[in-house]
Amino acid sequence: MRPAFFKRPYRKLVPLALAAGLLSTGCGQQYVLLHPVGPVGQQELHLMELAAIAMGIVILVVFTLYFYAIIRFRDKPGNTAPYRPDWHGSKWLEILWWVLPAVLLTVIAIPTVKTTYALDHVPKGKDPIVIDVTSLTWKWLFEYPGQHVAAVNQLVIPTGKPVLFELTADSPMNTFWIPALGGMEYTMPNRVLPLWLQANKPGTYIGLSGQYSGTGFAKMFFHVKAVSPAAFNAWVAKTRKTASPMTMAVYDQLLKHNTTGQALYSSYPKDTFPTVANGFTLTGSGMYMVMRDKNDITYMPMQNP
Amino acid sequence: MPSFVTYLIHTLFPPTVRYPDILLIDAGLIVGAIGLVGFLTKTHRWGWLWREWLTTVDHKKIAVMYLISAIVMLFRGGIDAEMLRAQLAMPSVHFMPAIQYDEVFTTHGTIMIFFMAMPFIFALFNAVIPLMIGARDVAFPRVNAMSFWLFAFGAILFNISFIIGGSPDAGWTAYPPYTGLAFNPGPGENYYFLALIIAGMGTTMTGINFLVTTIRMRAPGMTLMKMPMFVWATMVTSALILFAFPPLTVALAMSLFDRLFGSSFFTLTRGGMPMMYVNLFWLFGHPEVYILVIPLFGVFSEVVATFSRKALFGYPLMVVSILAIMFLSYGTWVHHFFTMGAGPGVNAFFGLSTMLIAIPTGVKIFNWIFTMWGGRIKMTVAMLYQMAFIPTFVIGGASGVMLAVVPADYQLHNTYFLIAHFHNVIIGGTLFGLLSGMYYWWPKMFGMKLNERQGKVAFWLFFIGFWITFTPQYLLGLKGMTRRLYTYPAGLGWHELNVISTVGAWIMGAGFVVLVYNVVWSLLYGERDVTGDPWDGRTLEWSLPSPVPEYNFARIPVVHERDEWWAMKQKGQTMAHALRPEDVHDIELPKNTPVPFLLGASFFVVGFGMTFKWWPIAIVGMLGVIACLLYSGFDYDDHHHLEADVVRQTEASLGRLQG
Amino acid sequence: MSVPLAEKTGQHQLPIEFADEKESIKITGFWMFLVTDVLIFASLFSTYAVMRTSVAMGPTPDQLFHMGPVMLETILLLTSSFTIGLGVYFMRKGQVRALMGWMIVTILLGAGFVGTEIHDFVTFAQQGATWHTSAFLSAFDILVGTHGAHVTFGIFWAITLLFQLRKRGITPQTARKVYTYSLYWHFLDIVWIFIYTFVYLNGKIV
């Protein structure tokens, strides 16, 4: 029976493909989802692994039964396997395979719900640095409301500190994604969505868009530089001193449908980000609401009713 | 006058439809059209074409027309796929410019789902459902023809876009505001919305038709729990269509109005809410996923029982699971956009509901395996596709559960992992199922078998090519490659896997070529099916001769068992099926009518006029629609009687008449 | 022209429109069609619910709506639902003239409804409140407009039925057509009640 099993080309292919996959996953940082450098990405990876293991069990069970069935019960002369044409059900078997997947899925489901809630807000007791992200037609605008600087297609963040991105769009939808740090979130016109990420290691990471938005969409890559908090402050100071300010005229230029390179600005006009409050939960240590006035951003604790 | 001509050329043939490859296709189409017209004229087949096909209301002929359209569309969508893979084989390749790449992935997705898979499914419905339930036709034969022609003209409208005016380029989901005039001024998206609205009307009518057919037209004795699984699948799919297509129609119409009539539903300004489109679209979109796969669950259930020569395992629970999937499929749509900020409560709910739907699906897999268990498996091509389906679909389902894990989806959303996942379930479930059904019922439809040897070659090419194409795409997703990139930079490690994937796509392409060769060869030299039951089948369609006479059943059968035909053969009662002459009566049959064809054509004119905002043309088309409706409203002469003698002669010539 | 009911329905105790199996299947089909129409309106209602507050620079529901014409429309349409019910009652009694009479009354009431609605929309447009103005107005116009278009279609459908009744009298086929038409008309009445409550009353109160 064994030799017949391996005669079929596709049966060779399955272990080959698996081996190739495992080998290539083992090496290299290019499997960026498998080597996250921040807590968000790490938690997401843990869940992926858990789901993969649970599903691996299902696949193993199904494949074992399946291959046994198709080998044992083939219609060929001299096959001695029992032939039971009227066997049309078995209560216990059927109960078993309603229960088995249900158990495995419960194993996945509980941490899924927990992590979904946990990742929704910045962890307790950590004040994040806020960055306003606007996707424009084929470029990214990053504004630092606390630092009053702005950048296009490049992002500098301090390590070891949560970064709260407020995402909106002055363009068709995109998603804002830094795979090395964690998952993506949509940027949508007329809405502001929160996403927090954190880099634990200094380095330069790739960011990109995951939602198609036109011919220049494939060029919407940006660089994320994670640096030490001291270096971050130095970068802010330097940018404020050396870069030129972003005026409305500059912003209008950015609204044009084209791709551009990177740029830094020492300030930006206050109207470029929506001022309408789409209040959302910032941290777990009490409710905060983002409050904006002309120049500043503050966190206002809100009383629980 | 010259300015008018310039305007016409500028509008109908903008630069995006003047690439060399498209001009080549233009030339090919013109030559092909001339050839076709010449052939029809020379062989005097215009009248035949009109009487036998364009005006037919016979479900068996409509099935053939659906099947031909679906295979043509499989070719078109497949060419699109090959072009996409060619572009992505190397980093920074410019085989196609960005705009053309965007158009090609849009048409690939739209065509494969709406104009390949759907009509292919309807081909199978039409070909066998009335035969399986012991009926002479569907509930509404004329509506059936209308459904087909609305689909066909919708498909034509969509398909001419790449040679006239420019293709849509916003993806098959067409999210606003990118589809708005501010970002997308050409006629492409108008084509998309209008073609889908027109084809969608046809689909909705098909849903109504087959739901009523399966509810009201079953032979006496065929209770719900005696229906073959494919009939159950059809009933459930039709119900899903009924509930899924209206939200789509509404979403498409609103987008269209934004573009044509200046409304503000999904616009960037004036308070438009693009997110509402996304909700409505996926409120359709997720049930649509099950519309695409449940019929094939039915096909697999028939195929696996027939070729294992064994009753379907766990029939009652198969029914329960299919119903569970139907209900649950309406509660999962948000999983297509977990990353749109609905909040953890909503996301967790939809994540769990998505995992929940995996349970009844898994149950079906086990039941199919245990149908084979204790059987005698015949490795026909239809069965091979069924056997390829199980592992492929299980792996696709497993990656689907990974995507249902909300935090994991934040990383995997819109990456090639997602692409690999849904191709895994749509090709593994839908396409393999369609081909399985095609090979299984081909003898019933055409009276000859498809060559098995060639079929096996095509199968292995498809199956191996599929895995070589999509396994690397899972890995590309883990490397952070997002979908719909027309090019990518070197240095991210995406190159090698993309090359492998492209090679796989070529292998699948080769599989398609062999498939077409197989069909053509078999039509010419294939083994005729004289028994009517070449596979030793289990259900009523195999009790009829192949191909089936116009009236299907000379005498409506009475059903006692779930696998009625199998049970009759076991008891040696097949000759009881032979008729006594006095059992044959006049048979009432629906009359052919040109209205469905003309209605479809009128809607095409409406769609074309609206695409280019040429209102007089649209109004002319609308008048055509009104004329068709009025005519059919006043037309009471919709059936004719086939005389008993004619039926007796036909049956006698098939050797099915006693005495 | 009228045919006694018993003769048409034979020994079946079914109303004439269900007497013929083929026609009865068509009624089932029509119910299925109504399901899709319910879904269309459900989608439109949900869109309206979401976009109701999205008034941009345009008027709010409270500023826009005037209840006078809406009350008139409601009375006209509710009455017409009653009159078509009477029509079907007389159809089952085999009285074709009474049926046609009540259908004409229904048509006139429906036309009154559509006329009032068009007048209302023209008034809005003159105030600059078109669906170009805001997402709220887009959602309002498409919801109420789709209903109005359905009513308009129903009026023309009824007119074609009148011609068929005049030519053929009450047969299982024409009876089925009138019956499905009455289902359609009652359905539009129900939709209007929802529009009246969730759009107009809600817009005035909240």
Essential attributes:
heterotrimer; A: 305 residues; alpha+beta; Helix Hairpins; Immunoglobulin-like; six-stranded mixed beta sheet; five-stranded mixed beta sheet; 13 strands; elongated; disordered N terminus; disordered C terminus; B: 659 residues; mainly alpha; Cytochrome C Oxidase, Chain A; two-stranded antiparallel ribbon; 1% strand; globular
Structural commentary:
The complex is a heterotrimer of chains A (305), B (659) and C (206). Helices cover 35% and strands 24% of the residues of chain A. Chain A has 6 helices and 13 strands. In chain A, a hairpin with a 4-residue loop joins β2 (139-144) and β3. The relative contact order of chain A is 0.13. Helices cover 67% and strands 1% of the residues of chain B. Chain B has a two-stranded antiparallel sheet with strand order 1-2. The radius of gyration of chain B is 25 Å and the shape is globular. Chain B starts with a helix and ends in a 6-residue tail after the last helix. Chain C contains 8 helices and no strands. Chain C has one domain (14-205): Cytochrome c oxidase, subunit III, four-helix bundle (Four Helix Bundle (Hemerythrin (Met), subunit A)). In chain C, α3 runs antiparallel to α7 (135-168) and α7 (135-168) runs antiparallel to α8. With 206 residues, chain C is an all-alpha fold. Chains in contact: A-B, B-C. At the A-B interface, α2, α3, α4, β7 and β9 of A face α5, α9, α10, α11 and α12 of B.
Strand content of chain C: under 5%
CA-based gyration radius of chain A: 26 Å
Query: What proportion strand of chain A?
Result: 15-25%
- Helicity of chain C, in percent? over 70%
**Which class do the helix and strand fractions of chain C yield?**
mainly alpha
CATH H level, superfamily name of chain C = Cytochrome c oxidase, subunit III, four-helix bundle
Describe the sheet with the most strands of chain C: none
CATH class descriptor of the largest domain in chain A = Mainly Beta
List the uncertain runs of chain C: 1-10
Distance between the termini of chain A: 72 Å
Just give the CATH class of chain C: Mainly Alpha
Helix percentage range of chain A: 25-40%
Task: Provide the CATH architecture of chain C.
Answer: Up-down Bundle
Tell me the distance between the termini of chain C: 55 Å
Can you give the mean pLDDT of chain C?
90
The tally of helices of chain C reads 8
Examine the coordinates and then state which fold CATH places here, giving the name of the CATH topology of chain C: Four Helix Bundle (Hemerythrin (Met), subunit A)
Q: State the domain count of chain A.
A: 2
